[in-house]
Predict the structure.
Amino acid sequence: MRSIKMLSLATFGALALSAPAFAQDATGDTASGKHFAVVGGISLLQPKTDPADGIDKVDGGPAPTLSASYYFNDNFAIELWGAADKFNHRVRADGLGKVGSVEQQPLALSAQ
């Protein structure tokens, strides 16, 4: 239920803060001569658990994300995406309660 609320909140926030789309001009140049794009958002990470390992539950949660893209032309770009804050996870085992915690801060470089 919590993940549905967080997903709904993230979707509503993205729609409320999104800018309108602009059509490409007839010259064929990159729209408005801009080569960079910076985007912010929220990612929700929910790890899966494996009962065979004795792990009962691994908590997930949201974290803010940032993305920066450099456009070589209208069709090709390179993007650097990453979490602006760390994802924190509590690990619980059967009958033992909390047995540890994990922090991660993902980072990705991709071509578009």
Q: What stands out?
A: Residues 15 and 97 are 39 Å apart (CA to CA). The mean pLDDT is 75. The longest helix spans residues 2-17. Strands lie at 36-45, 55-58, 61-71, 77-83, 87-93, 97-104, 107-111.
